[in-house]
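Kindly inspect this chain:
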Amino acid sequence: MAFEAFRAQAAAPARAGRKRLWYALSIAFHGALIGAGVAYSFWHIEELSPPLLKITFLSAAPPPPPAAPPPAGGGAFGKKKVTVKPKPVVVPKPEIVQPKELPKKEEPKEEPKTEDKGEKDGVKGGVVGGTPGGVVGGTPGGTVGGIPGGVVGGTPGASKFLPPHMGAAQKLSGADPPFPPSLRKTGTIYRILVRIFVSAAGTVEKVQLMKGCDSLLDAGVLSTVKSWRFRPYMANATPIPFSYLATFEFKPQE
């Protein structure tokens, strides 16, 4: 073992020397190659040829030659020269059309206004053609002596028919019709329709049975309504008689 260690120590300096030699040779070789390349590039410099320029000139086409003049003196064959005269341009004259006169429309003539003069013995403010002795403001065709607000063609003093709610609103006093105990059955409803005629003074002149249901109820309604009092119905500040329909309903209280 000691001998081998001695040999290894003796061979180490020799190996180191060989490495240094190889390094030096390699550096020298590469440096020579680089220097040769640089020198070669300086010795062989090629001149760059300038680019070739081509210039093309373009020109327009030459104008056509002028036309040949016509032959003088009738030509080689003795023909006469033909002169073409230009045709005159005819401008059409505008045609004037006279407008036709439209017939004038005749305006309606206004009739002269005439003052309404009543007939002889008429009342000032009355209607022309009215009945002599009539009331100013009355209905044309009404009866002389009738009540203002009455129905045309009706009897003088005839009552005016009012809707049920208007007639009931004129009532001043009066008890309800009686409901007999014998008719108070559960689930039974009685309805009676009457027409009440009221005088100009507000009293009941007549009660007309339109639809009844039981003799006891009918009699009680007719007798009770006759004692009612109403407010006079006014027409043109004049009290007039009137009538209306009234419905009475009876049902037992549960």
About this structure: Strands lie at 160-161, 171-173, 190-198, 204-211, 229-230, 233-235, 238-240, 242-250. DSSP finds three helices and eight strands in the chain.
